[in-house]
Amino acid sequence: MSSSRISRISIGTACLVAAFAAAGTAASATGSDTDVPSYKEFKASTYQDVDGAYVVNGDEIVSGNKQLKEFYDKVVAPQSMHDGLIVNTVGGVDDKWSASQVANLTYCVSTKFGTRQADVVNAMATGAGLWEAASSKVNFVYVSSQNSNCTTSNSNVVFSVEPVQTTQYIARAFFPSSPKSQRNVLVDDSIWSSGSWTPGDVLGHELGHTLGFRHEHTRPEAGTCFEDNNWRPLTPYDSSSIMHYPQCNGGSANLKFQASDATGVRALYGS
Ligand SMILES: [Zn+2]
Predict the structure, then answer these.
(1) Would you say 87 and 96 are in contact if contact means Cβ atoms under 8 Å apart?
(2) Which of 48, 138, 184, 270 has the most CB atoms less than 10 A away?
(3) pLDDT tier at 60 (50, 70, 90 boundaries)?
(4) 238 Cα: distance to centroid of ligand 1 (angstroms)
(5) By C-alpha distance, which of 60, 187, 65, 166 is closest to 123?
(6) Alpha-carbon torsion 165, 167, 173, 178, what sign?
(7) How far is the CA of 117 from the centre of ligand 1 (A)?
(8) Domains observed in the chain
(9) What is the pLDDT of residues 92-102, one digit of tens each?
């Protein structure tokens, strides 16, 4: 297996879980998540390219000390002071379900999964259970009667879970703001051979997106894998969040649900 089959990220309607091998994943040991680095510490930890430019957000540059300080004041310091889960925003507004809808997030699991269909049903229950256990307001509802017609066109369910054949990702999902025509969770067969990522945890990550949660590694503290700034922090940064790719300077290799994820979902939807 490749050690870094990092996927492309598609912002707006779908987010992807990259395939990776646990071996070679760098663990972060940067200490407390809530410590705001001083400018001096930030500057010392920021990579300086061969031409002297500082590299921020993974692949963007700022040219000198003055510009780096401006970046720190504008992006690093304020974000670090916020209370690891972040919610997607659209036009500055939280991308979330209504209280009544989040209590009844119905889904089917396509019979096109064939012999794996029951395994997908079980993994969905496991992934949904992570969020449901953290917030009594969140309730995913499996509607097996729609499995034989389980597509984005089926208006009897909020979303569908369908198989896909791809080398680009293990699974991908959608956000609450996505139109019904895009509301599906697509699952590739590689979910059954994803190393230290269990199928339940992979789908837990995907269901995090369906609740509105963005990749934790787009926050500046990750120092890499930046996507965009259209999000609002719900908790302090957590490099081990289930929404943080391990290969993006993540704090753990196994994509497990963390206490910060529980805190975040409660902050958005209530306990
Ligand atoms: Zn994702």
Answers:
(1) yes
(2) 184
(3) low
(4) 15
(5) 187
(6) negative
(7) 22
(8) 1-28+86-271 (3.40.390.10)
(9) 999 999 999 99
